[in-house]
Specification:
heterodimer, A: 398 residues, alpha/beta, eight-stranded mixed beta sheet, six-stranded parallel beta sheet, globular, B: mainly alpha, 74% helix, elongated, disordered C terminus
Chain lengths: 398, 167
């Protein structure tokens, strides 16, 4: 099949989230199909400033088509509009304007889909919240597969999404919770599959010496990812400092680029961005992975931790994280400071049980998230979304 | 393996029970509601409030709908600059937008953040009130149902009694 993967930004040096998911799935699809990534020249997800040259390039097995961003995001205007839309007080025009302001505003990308969309057998779109998906998908709806990466944030309640979610031919979801969230806003009968993301088995040998220079305490609990209030890091630090005040001598190690102030405290260690080798070593040496995000459609870091047999402690208010932990039996969760402290105490004071929770997480990864299992589901969905056939007759619908 | 198949729900059940017990003792010690001496009452109150905080969609509660017609209850967390002066208004707006706002942006953002928190808290309180009203409605219905059932059971007895006395 000739496939297009549409994503708001793309590059080997762009980490995380839907961009990383798109890259991994596209690379695995390229083993069987002719895959073109349709994207913008942006690298920065805040401003959408043009960074990569426009035009065609190749990245491994992938053909990459980049289109320029016409204007950078006006942050204050976007935030003001967000307040209006999220408070459910926006008109239909203002709701549509929100997707325009969110960007990346790449009219040439939309024009490419208008002119050449029908040349692809399927067009896969990642993240419903961005300009390229919101305005591009309707142009190729008969062959569109949406990977919504929806979270239970205020945007999902926007009225206009009922119209939008009725458009794609099929859906690929990251978790069962995301499927439930979108199914409540989409017509029934559309083919869909919960795929999560594939992982290869973790390397058996890890270079722990990479941690020597970092002078980390033992034991430590690990937060891995963007250090940002929207990721629940403010609450995590508050919970942890209260926990430390109780006299526990455990260190919180935070590895990732920071967009907030991290308190200067002997038991809180911020490492900034770390490379893959340090990341592997941290996941191997940590006692627990902490995942405080209140909104997630899938936590790749959580899956990576389980891939190494590391138990997790997650925010119970995030249905996706709690659902993952319960299905995997791979860790504990907390809803407030007191539960955070008790759950962390349990994981640190019962090392055998904590290790067993980690092993159960690994067994869950083996059952659900190995690449052959994931790609089989994707292939079945692609077969079920043939634009020449309607309505689909597959056993993977909502 | 001795520790195989650890059930997260079982461990969490134990942790949550322990946290609730400590919280109750803490509140009693600090002079909280005397009824909290009774563990069952505390657990019932905890369950109702936790349901409101964790289980409710804060964007779909009844009280804001009832308030909406005559009270502007929502906090304005976004700033709208406008003018009623037709001629000089454009210059005033320009000055506000380009000069005044950038200078006071830090203060604006500080206030905006606090308004957002207050807005969230208001919605949580609406959910709590609604959960209490729901609990009340459910209990009333259960009470009405049980008094009807009692009346239904008692009626034949009265009838029986009447027949007895009539013989």
């Amino acid at each position: 099949m000739k496939l297009a993967c549409v994503i708001h930004r793309f590059g080997a040096d762009i980490a995380g989230g839907s961009e990383g998911h798109c890259r991994l799935v596209a690379e695995h699809l390229a083993a069987e199909h002719d895959v073109t990534v349709v994207t913008t020249c942006a690298k920065d997800h805040i401003t959408w400033r043009n960074h990569y040259p426009a035009g065609e390039t190749r990245l491994g097995p992938l053909r990459v088509l980049r289109f320029p961003v016409a204007r950078e995001r006006h942050l204050h205007r976007f935030m003001d509009l967000s307040d209006l839309v999220f408070a459910d007080r926006a008109s239909a025009e203002e709701q549509e304007l929100w997707f325009h302001e969110n960007g990346p505003d790449a009219p040439d990308l939309i024009e490419h889909l208008r002119l050449h969309g029908s040349e692809y057998d399927r067009v896969l779109f990642w993240s419903y919240r961005y300009f390229d998906t919101y305005f591009g998908l309707p142009l190729v709806a008969d062959r569109a597969v949406l990977v919504p990466t929806a979270e239970e944030d205020p945007l999902i309640h926007v009225d206009d999404l009922r119209r939008f979610f009725a458009l794609p031919k099929g859906f690929l979801f990251l978790t069962a919770e995301e499927q439930t969230l979108v199914a409540a806003r989409a017509p029934s009968g559309r083919p869909s599959a919960v795929i999560g993301c594939g992982l290869d088995p973790a390397p058996s040998a890890t270079d722990l010496a990479r941690l020597d220079d970092l002078q980390l305490a033992d034991p430590f609990v690990l937060y891995l990812g963007r250090i940002d209030p929207n990721k629940g890091c403010g609450a995590l630090i508050r919970h942890f400092l209260r926990y430390a005040d109780l006299g526990r001598r455990v260190q919180l190690v935070m590895a990732g680029p920071a967009s907030m102030t991290i308190p200067d405290h002997p038991l809180v260690r911020s490492l900034g961005f770390v490379d893959d080798a340090v990341r592997d070593a941290l996941l191997t040496r940590a006692r627990v992975l902490v995942m405080p995000s209140p909104f997630e459609s899938l936590s790749m870091v959580l899956l990576e931790a389980w891939n190494r047999g590391l138990p997790a402690l997650v925010n119970a208010r995030c249905k996706v994280l709690r659902g993952q932990v319960e299905r995997a039996n791979g860790g504990l969760y907390y809803g407030n400071s007191a539960e955070f402290a008790s759950a962390l105490d349990y994981l640190l004071d019962h090392p055998d049980q904590a290790r067993q929770l980690g092993r159960q997480g690994l067994a869950y990864i083996d059952r659900e998230y190995r690449w052959p299992i994931v790609m089989e589901k994707v292939e079945r969905l692609l077969a079920a979304t043939d634009p020449t056939c309607s309505p689909p007759d597959v056993g993977v619908s909502f | 393996m001795a520790d195989s198949n650890i059930r997260v729900d079982a461990v969490m059940g134990e942790i949550e029970r322990d946290v609730r017990a400590r919280l109750r003792r803490h509140l009693v010690k600090k002079g909280g509601a005397a009824d909290y001496q009774d563990e069952a009452i505390f657990d019932a109150v905890h369950a109702v409030l936790a349901r409101a905080v964790d289980g409710r969609n804060l964007d779909a509660t009844l009280l804001p709908e009832l308030l909406d017609s005559d009270v502007e209850w929502r906090l304005e967390t976004h700033l709208k600059l406008s003018t009623h002066r037709p001629a000089v208004g454009r210059f005033i707006l320009f000055a506000k937008r380009r000069l005044l706002l950038p200078i006071t942006r830090w203060l604006f953002e500080y206030s905006q953040e606090n308004f957002r928190r207050q807005d969230h808290l208001n919605r949580v309180l609406f959910a709590c009130i609604e959960e209490l009203a729901l609990e009340n409605a459910r209990l009333r219905r259960a009470l009405t149902g049980s008094s009807r059932a009692t009346a239904h059971h008692e009626e034949p007895k009265k009838h029986e009694g009447h027949e007895e006395t009539s013989y």
